[in-house]
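Task card 7
Instruction: Convert sequence to structure tokens.
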Amino acid sequence: MTDNLVYIAIGAYFILLGIAIFLYFRPKFIQEGFTTIAIEGETMPKCLLRDAEAQYLLTMFKEMKVVNPSSDSEMAFDELKLILQKVLCLDADVTGPAAGAYSTYQFPFTTSHDIEPVAHLVGRCVRHVARERDIEMVIDKYSTRGATLINQLCDNRSKGSALTSFQNILDRVKRSITGICVAPKATLDIPPGARDPGYYEPDSIKNLTPYTIMGEKQYI
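Output:
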């Protein structure tokens, strides 16, 4: 009888130990496949899925940073990653079906590569009040700063292809958003069709002369 109690106690101990181990490692056992990529910013930054060339560039720059670890390369990589995110999220917010600053509103304003907060440009594009010159200046600032950062990160062998790929990304985004940003704004000044009352002008008022005010000066 005593031996049975001992065996039962030992069995209960191992059962409780197994439950404790399972609960401790439970988050790792029950983890969806995309969780790490969706949360970990360096693996898959915001909006980067929109462009395969940007994903390739970021992977290449990350490997270079690991090979040549330094504070300068770390800062250059982080800023270049931020530029890529801003450019691609700008494209997403302007060309998306629900146009608005949904992805760009939380990006920081960084004077080294920003002329204005990127969400401000999105707002003007959505209202069709941005000018083509505004877009050119914003993209040119990203291009200039990005080239400086790539020169810091890359060696002479990979510098040329990296700069070309980066410029390709900027050119695609520029072409994508320009047509929307500079489209003429809708107006009611010119009626859209013959059914609009603005097209009808009665004959009795077609040839009216300018109105002349008559009367005493104090009433004019």
